[in-house]
Design goal:
Layout: H1 3-17, H2 24-39, H3 42-49, H4 55-66, H5 72-83, H6 89-132, H7 135-141, H8 148-158, H9 165-176, H10 183-197, E1 202-207, H11 213-227, E2 232-237, E3 245-249, E4 252-255, H12 258-269
Parallel strand pairs: 1-2
Antiparallel strand pairs: 1-3, 3-4
Amino acid sequence: MSAVSTESLNKVEQVLADNTASNPNHLAAELFAVVDLIDGNGGLRRGLTDPSREAEQRAGIARAVLSGKVSEGALNVVSAAAEARWSSERDLADALEKTAVTAIAMSAEQRGGADALDAVVNELLTFVNTVNSSAEAQSALADSRASKEALKKLAVNLGGQVTTEEGKLLLERVGSATRGSTAARLANEFVEIIVKRQNRWIARVTAAEALSAEQIAKLQGSLNTTYGKDLKLDITVDPSVLGGLRVQVGDEVIDGTLSTRLADLSRSFA
């Protein structure tokens, strides 16, 4: 998002914070439904983002279309989004989707604090790693003939032992409404939204074999010290790397795997 749209998103999330006291998961489900409505209706999308209209007019369109169909809290959030300025028409729906994910994160925090939020992130990461390692799963999730309910169920099953209501809601969303992305990529985006809320980063670690609890603790401590943040480790086992570790934090990659060193050596001889 551009700076203008990011500033508008921040304002919408401020309104969200004032409207999630009762049932943030229900509010999130309503916002997802509004995103789908906006995506499928070009006239409505243009009306809600038209810079030639006054902010009050755009909010009035939102209320006229949605009044009586969603809760007052959802109506307040969508109206605030309509009043804001966006760099592109799509940015409004993108912002509402991000806001819905934030509402679900708030639900987990209210229910069980950081531990509950970590559980949700772990369920999403399990889904991402499972899908990325299975061409069959990727094909099934992209099957346009499958019903939304079937895709929701498949996505939840691919998340492993999903025990949180919030994780289930998010996985159902990534399974049934990718909005031009892929399910795994969208799940990754949801993870980034949640860990950013925790002021954390994701460290994606690839190892040739499973790490012991002691090794994970040492790696966690070393990376936290290096980056000055409490990182969330996403560890994937890939025997093809042969040995060592590959760590990616944001755009920075530390590759100490044996397969990479062998490839480098082979290129030097060539």
